[in-house]
Amino acid sequence: MNPRGIILFLAGFFLGILASLLLAPFLSTQLQQSGSRLSTPIVYPTRSTVTPETPLASPALTVSKASSTLPTSALIEGQRNMSYIVYMSLSVQDVKSTVQSITVIAAKLGGYVSSTDFSEESGQRASVTIKVPAQIYKEAVKEISSLGRLDKLQENAIDVTDQWVDLNARLRNLKAEEDRLL
User: What are the boundaries of each domain within the chain?
Assistant: First the structure.
């Protein structure tokens, strides 16, 4: 089957930890155009080569609910810092306009594009990585899903509370050392 059309792969919001102890979310999107018909992609949880016959998607969306002001006692009382990973695959009609739309969505939701990659091997493809606040990741997924036909959606959550507590303790120690040296 020779697919035509464009495949939008939402691939990545990989967990990033900023120096200020904020865990930054990532959103990646891959698009592919080829053949004469829209294809139904096969979605896998790891990044791989995409061909017109078997397009694949990669890790897609990771966001976190960490806050540098959250007291450690709140963590003891059951509040957890979570990272969400979403795998999406969408079929779209126009790669470039979809990438532009994703850029607009990211900005509208308080995020930004951190990388873009276009490829024309076996049709047109693009990979876009954006960062958005954790509280609105579901809205980002909803809006990006509306840009084409949603072929696959999978969500996972990862508890990053231990990492947050560790980084918060390191920051406190560094501030105490700075105060001592001043």
Answer: 5-181
